[in-house]
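User: Thanks for the earlier help. One more: Type III restriction protein res subunit. Can you show the sequence and predicted structure together?

Assistant: Of course, both are below.
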Amino acid sequence: MLKPDISNDITGNLAPRIELRPYQRTALERWLFYIDKYDGRPKAPHLLFHMATGSGKTVLMAALILDLYRRGYRNFLFFVNSAQIIEKTKENFLNAASAKHLFAPTIRIDDKPVDIRAVDTFDAVSGDAINIHFTTIQGLHTRMQAPKENAVTIEDFRDYKVVMISDEAHHLNAETKKTLTEGEKAEKASWEGTVSEIFRQHPENMLLELTATVDLSHDAIRAKYADKILYDYSLRQIREDGYSKDIELRQADLPPAERMMQAMVLSQYRRKVAEAHGLHCKPVILIKSKTIKDSADNEAAFTAMVAGLTGEALDALRAASEGDETLSRAFTFIMDERAMSGADFARELQGDFAPEKVVNVNNPKDLENRQIELNALEDRDNEIRVIFAVDKLNEGWDALNLFDIVRLYDTRDGKANKVGKTTMAEAQLIGRGARYFPFMAPDQPDAAREKAQV
């Protein structure tokens, strides 16, 4: 089978920094074959891109939008489970000044300039622009049930053909499950029905789902997607292809304060190794707690630990870590090879991990206020080093320089033959940390990428 060509209308209109990876090109080639040559394609396709966290699903979304525009689609509905993902996606789609902006400074298709606009409704929008309505699935469901003036309504989807793009799409499967908890029934059971109703309103609507974590072990969900998975690219594949960090699991039977101190030392070790090689890398630590109260308590303990840190405490940690190869290597590099005393190292850590460089995202207002910072942790002027969280950042968070995830609880909620929610959430979170942090080694200027450990 000949591979379809990916049009310059796609590649030439992505941000100049974006070079499609081989697996992203494969996903697009499958899409182009499906749309142009697959005889069994329905007029209103419903497809799933099942792709690992960190594989660049948002880049794929941008490429699909560009291709669909040249096929005559102007209206796009982007919906997701979380308001924070909405804000991050708007930033990446609409803000040309953002370091993670997805599109070229000027988009040209068929030799005509094309704007990208966020819209509240598809009524009376530009026929020449890419019009995107961003919403949470909860908000979309509410508006469909209780229409308001100057807001999207069911008629929008009846009168205009729309491409529906569902990010973190596994949240749509509440009705497909044979067994629902009371909470799922109350909160989610109608979301899937709302999406299905919208999809059916126009014969040329499309529904494109993207997620890393569809529960294909569930019989009903596996049956639902049997003819819808266009591309499947797992975390194992992205790791084998060299587009993720290496993952090292460390176990320590230690009190929370000592676990956090170890993580801080290892994080600073990474920073100093990078600096020694002329590289800018500010490693970030995520400290995960079981409850919001625990998270607040752990943040207070961390702040107190840093404030009271002494050279003697670091010397004691070094002495206790003789059987820990990684931690011993960190101390050897910092205190022997770099000739830093315990007291000087303590003062450096107190500066680099000061309270203003620590964020707790469990408060929705704090999360909203610092969303832009959290989406730009790699920026040189971004000084955040530690993030305390429970579940807020499990999904939809892009952080290439997240290197350490510290879990300060021991229980899991899995049952026999079933992955528990805690385990699934942790798998998602590990995927966040595994996002590849690219850098060019000074002695290998032609290297496409270098590896780093999480």
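User: Great, one quick takeaway?

Assistant: Confidence is low (pLDDT under 50) at residues 414-420, 446-454.
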